[in-house]
Amino acid sequence: MATYSELMAQAQSLMAQAEQARKDELSNVIADIKAKMKQYGISVADLGGASAGGRKAAKSKSGAAPKYRGPNGELWAGGPGRKPQWVRDALAAGKDLDAYKI
Predict the structure, then answer these.
(1) First-to-last C-alpha distance (Å) of the chain
(2) DSSP-based helix, strand, coil % in the chain, nearest 5
(3) What pLDDT score was predicted for residue 53?
(4) Mean pLDDT, residues 20-48
(5) Which parts of the chain fold into alpha helices (H)?
């Protein structure tokens, strides 16, 4: 029979594998959704996203008014602290955050 520490190591390994599978599948799902949105001319506003008309101004998670909108409609106030993953990805790709200003 396996020991507790062996089982915990297996569990952590499986969780890491599951997270990687989720990320891989998520990339494919997002690409598929973007392709269908383009094909049918659907915008984030059509889906009831933050840019939909007639709604109150959107707020970021911090509660501050957002200054940036990510490629998938994510909002970020641009304050101190950890940057969202989409911001880190954009910066790593050499993109200028001014392109995402609202």
Answers:
(1) 58
(2) 50, 5, 45
(3) 47
(4) 90
(5) 4-40, 85-92
